[in-house]
Amino acid sequence: MINKEDIAMIKGKLDETSSKEDIAMIKGKLDETSSKEDIAMIKGKLDETSSKEDIAMIKGKLDETSSKEDIAMIKGKLDETSSKEDIAMIKGKLDETSSKEDIAMIKGKLDETSSKEDIAMIKGKLDETSSKEDIAMIKGKLDETSK
User: Fold this and answer.
1) Which DSSP string do the residues of 15-67 spell out, in sequence order?
2) Predicted local distance difference test score (pLDDT) of residue 105
3) What is the rounded CA–CA span in Å between residue 3 and residue 20?
4) pTM of the predicted protein model
5) How far is residue 70's CA from residue 62's CA, in Å, rounded to a whole number?
6) I want to staple 120 with a disulfide (CB 3.0 to 4.6 A). Which of 6, 21, 54, 126 is the partner?
7) Highest mean pLDDT among 13-17, 24-28, 64-68, 136-140
8) Do the Cβ atoms of 4 and 30 come closer than 8 Å?
């Protein structure tokens, strides 16, 4: 039985220099409508064990310059509804050991210009019911020896 490759070789459509895609095209496994993933699979660059990143890289959605967020988005760990904390966590700026201040800074609630009261409020040491003395203590104007 003569196979399609043999016939293609006879017809001059295939020779020993032909690429895997050429052969796959002859075999009917690839045509001009085939996706980049199909071609990559034929080329041996993708298989059923390939990660979402691998596939995204083939599709041209990811490359070596892609940010951690891009990769996380491909992995399904981030999307347009993700919080700033989620994104910061992906970027490696936050993890489960991060302080409330770190999280507040990511959320845009604190920055390097924030007052001690702001920080104390984030830490849960002050709220809108705090007395003036509490606030003064935070500001360093009072300590436990003050009358």
Assistant:
1) -TT--HHHHHHHTTS--TT--HHHHHHHTTS--TT--HHHHHHHTTS--TT--
2) 60
3) 16
4) 0.26
5) 7
6) 126
7) 64-68
8) no
Among residues 106, 105, 131, the alpha carbon closest in space to that of 118 is found at 105
Dihedral over Cα of 94, 97, 103, 104: its sign:
negative
Separation CA 40–CA 58 (nearest Å): 7
The Cα–Cα gap between 106 and 50 comes to 33
CB-CB contact of 101 with 110 (8 Å): yes
Q: In whole angstroms, what separates CA 101 from the centre of its chain?
A: 24
Cα–Cα distance for residue pair 28/101, rounded to 1 Å = 60
